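Appendix B: complex inputs.
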Amino acid sequence: MSFNLHGKNLMTIRDWTNEEVKHVLNLSKVLKEQRYTGQSQNLMNHKKNIAVIMQKDSTRTRSAFEVAAFDLGMNVTYIGGTGSQMGKKESIEDTAKVLSGFYDGIAFRCGAHEDVEMLGKHSMVPVWNALSDDFHPTQMFADYLTIIEEFNRTDIKFAFFGDARSNMGNSLMLMAAHMGAEFWGVAPKELWPKEKLQKEAKKIAKLTGASINFTENIEKGAKNAHVIYTDVWVSMGEPDEVWKERIKQLVPYRVTKDVMDLTHSRSIFMHCLPGFHDTNTKVGKEIHEKFGIDCMEVTDEVFRSHKSRVMVEAENRMHTIKAIMLATMGF
Ligand code: CP
Ligand code: NVA
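Resulting structure:
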């Protein structure tokens, strides 16, 4: 093994090597199998502690960190958007130094990506980016574990429909580059990732045989794709005013049965969740009342179809976050 993940932060997938990413994916498979067969994973015996700090809401990522930590025999402190001094009376730098004296790892969800970088820079223990405005690296491991379970390979055609310069679009592009996939961002040009990031992905792709492509043409993007992936059109932290424009831009890129009909016969549908596939949410209802649409990025039909792997993907958050923590904590 020519690498050592012990003590390493996870800020973006770009910062990890191909070998490191693959190691964590392999470890995730082992950990999932162990849990399914009821083997004890209590490696830490309550001698390690982690902090989970979420400045934005979370269902999956928070639960994944907490349950993974419990399974490993670790203690967890959850700190929400309010209730700590961080960012108001105490700088991120000071907070990082203080928390390093208590904890063995810190998960942090924030707005500006610089904030998690700052926490990572000044922390003496690993910091895991639990989502920032620009990147969502822990999600990538769950997504590719799901793909490996489905296809037993990663050199597949992967098409992301939607806001391709969001945290998910950026991260999926970088991960596809690591995994040797044929990546297609399918979106209006103004929603493609920054040129600089595209170049970085293409540099990684050169080493792995991946290809990084963008198109505004739905048929070109979806044709023979193994994976169709989408995400919310407006991300957490974006102002409400962007809904109108974003809906106009992305309604043509909604994942429908017609889109799925263009794909490979064994294709699957993926979504990091939460997803707006019906009007059974507060936001979904408001958007329905205001703009008259009863779903957004994906139809209810596709979301619930036999091709949908969204719930397996959600569960895989926990197995993969467990592997990320173990590897970076030196196990
Ligand atoms: N996919 C994801 O990160 O979900 P949460 O926002 O619920 O954590
Ligand atoms: N792009 C979404 C991802 C949620 C997991 C957001 O940031 O809200």
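The beta strands are 48-54, 74-79, 105-109, 127-129, 157-161, 182-186, 211-215, 227-230, 268-271.
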